[in-house]
Amino acid sequence: MATITRSTSARKKRVRRLAGNKRLDIQGLRAVAVILVVLDHLFGWPRGGFIGVDAFFVISGFLITGILVREGEKSGSLSISNFYRRRIRRIFPVAFLVLGVVVTTSYLLMLTSRFQSVASDAWWSLVFLVN
């Protein structure tokens, strides 16, 4: 029995080391949420709400709460501005890339009026005031 326990424990440690700080269970739930959103956009199923989006928000809330709690425990205080600064450093480079590709592609493939609409939407997305 001890051999099985050590083997299982060693396997878990190896998986954690390979995964880094990522929680594979959370990543799996995120994948399910994204798949639900894609299915809704492609086929209109599942009906009755934004199941994938809601799941994604719940997962994000769980992760953000954990980040804030760990920061508070580690430093003894909580800086919301530092939290957002780290998010901006992580999200903005990819956001700029995605928006740039979308605007450039729409310029090349769409009519002028539609491109102007896409460019406007991209601007509002960039400043997080879209909706």
Order of helices and strands: HHHHH
Shape: extended
Mean pLDDT: 87
- Strand composition percent: under 5%
Number of domains: 2
Separate helix tally: 5
Q: Please mark out the parts with pLDDT under 50 across 5 or more consecutive residues, or reply none.
A: none
The helix fraction, in percent, is: over 70%
Write down the Rg: 21 Å
Number of strands: 0
Derived from helix and strand composition plus strand pairing, the structural class reads mainly alpha
- Spatial separation of the terminal alpha carbons: 58 Å
Could you give a short account of the major beta sheet? none
Report on this model:
- InterPro entries: Acyl_transf_3_dom, Acyltransferase_3.
- Keywords: Membrane, Transmembrane, Transmembrane helix.
- This is Acyltransferase 3 domain-containing protein.
- The chain has 131 residues and is mainly alpha-helical.
- The chain has five helices and no strands.
- It has helices at 2-19, 24-43, 51-75, 80-109, 112-126.
- Helix 2 (24-43) runs antiparallel to helix 3.
- The mean pLDDT is 87.
